[in-house]
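Subgroup meeting minutes
Present: P.N., E.W., G.H.
Scribe: E.W.

1. P.N. recapped why we're keeping a running log of single-chain structure predictions: easier to compare across weeks, and new members can see raw inputs and outputs side by side.
2. G.H. added today's entry (168 aa).
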Amino acid sequence: MPLSHPVIAVYPGTFDPMTLGHEDVVRRATQLFERVIVAVAAGHHKKTMFTLQERIEMAREVAKPYPQVEVESFSGLMRDFVVSRGGKAMVRGLRAVTDFDYEFQLAGMNRSLMPDVETVFLTPSDKYQFISSTFVREIAVLGGEVDKFVSATVQQRLAEKVRSLGRD
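Output recorded in log:
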């Protein structure tokens, strides 16, 4: 029986910065869901390199090829954001076994908070499974090449940010 309305999936994260792995998960999510909301966390619990607005702009750049993807920011409980947007699925990226324990616990907590929302784990392509925003930031700050890990626009923003921090 076909669904009478589009299934909305939310892909939350800090995206500091958005990597090719994140982009691959977005692409995979668009193949499964009619609408995907990339939810950029304000990141009150983390010190971010990029401002919330910069992270939103990067995510919008990366999402341009996917018309069914929207980018929004959120703060507070993810549950409140997902429910207010009519989300029926939450997309989480899994890179390695080390992610699984945390993500499994998070999925259980989210199921308790949002019984009508399913958590869907997607793995990025093999070539992106080792990439993390933390590694990308560290490599960029130390003057390394990050072009294999982020899009050209994100790479440019990273270079500008590193220069502005006086660390190049």
